[in-house]
Amino acid sequence: MSYRLIQLNSGNKIPSIGLGCYDIPRTQTSKIVYEALDVGYRHFDTAVLYGNEQEVIDGIAKYLKDHPEVKRSDVFYTTKLWNSQLGTANTEKAIDSMMQQIGPLKYIDLLLIHSPLPGREKRLESYKVMEQALKQGKVKNIGVSNYGQHHIEEILKDPEIETPPAINQIEISPWCMRQDLASWCLAKDIHVEAYAPLTHGYKLQEDSPNFQEIMKKYNKSPAQILIKWSLQKGYIPLPKTKTPSRLKSNLDVNDFELTPEEMVLVDQPDAYEPTDWECTNAP
């Protein structure tokens, strides 16, 4: 096994590394998901916004059919509600559609609200609908994405909500550390998934002497160092790749450990360079 299982506040377990499926072309998605399963991935992250949910499902379903020794319960499938699907009626309709689409996978392991942007009323309505889907067994875990502390607090303080988010998925890398938010989530037993942990490649070629020394010491790529950094911070990284050869190398991070001093060298606490959107500070 090239990952470990992390127990969520729901009591369920999630693989410590997942394949981020954002920006993988639909024509390639099923093949890449199948190949990822073949090299050891068991955790896949998609969204309505990504436009490749069906292809992710198809890749998983085909692999499970071809490999009966791998059980459905071994694979962790995440998707996300888009902004236009928030609000009670919209979320009910969206989940019904997702359940029809899921087919042989039978259930969603983790359903997230993709962003807080639709506003307080709609996001709370949607969370309550998700909680009902959880109780009905359609979904195993629920959570949020791109949420700031104040967004999560409104969930925790709502007397009609019984289930805290299992996950807050946010962009995290050494150049977008969000240390206060991430630490607060972990202290509340809300696990943090790190999307864009490789900065979409924007920072991988930077010629930092410190980074070069660490890479040379462990004979690891920049991507492997960043994934290990994220894991050692206590996060669940979701590295993305369209390149089959990198699928395996992104999992190959178990044979070394960054020292506390090296973790500090990788940290960029003064940087704030998100590569995607920023809505953790939305009202």
Automatic annotation (TrEMBL):
Give a GO molecular function annotation for the protein: 2-dehydropantolactone reductase (A-specific) activity
The record's Pfam families line, in alphabetical order, gives:
Aldo_ket_red
Annotated site location: Lowers pKa of active site Tyr: 80
* Enzyme Commission number, as recorded: 1.1.1.358
Q: Residues that bind substrate, according to the entry?
A: 114
Q: Which reactions does this protein catalyse?
A: (R)-pantolactone + NADP(+) = 2-dehydropantolactone + NADPH + H(+); isatin + NADPH + H(+) = 3-hydroxyindolin-2-one + NADP(+)
Q: What residue stretch is flagged as signal peptide?
A: none
* Active-site residues, Swiss-Prot/TrEMBL: 50
Q: Which Gene3D superfamilies match?
A: NADP-dependent oxidoreductase domain
Task: Report domain NADP-dependent oxidoreductase positions.
Answer: 24-268
Q: Which domain of life is it from?
A: Eukaryota
What keywords is this UniProt entry annotated with?
Oxidoreductase
**Gene Ontology biological process terms, A to Z:** arabinose catabolic process; cellular response to oxidative stress; D-xylose catabolic process; ketone metabolic process
Put simply, this protein is called 2-dehydropantolactone reductase
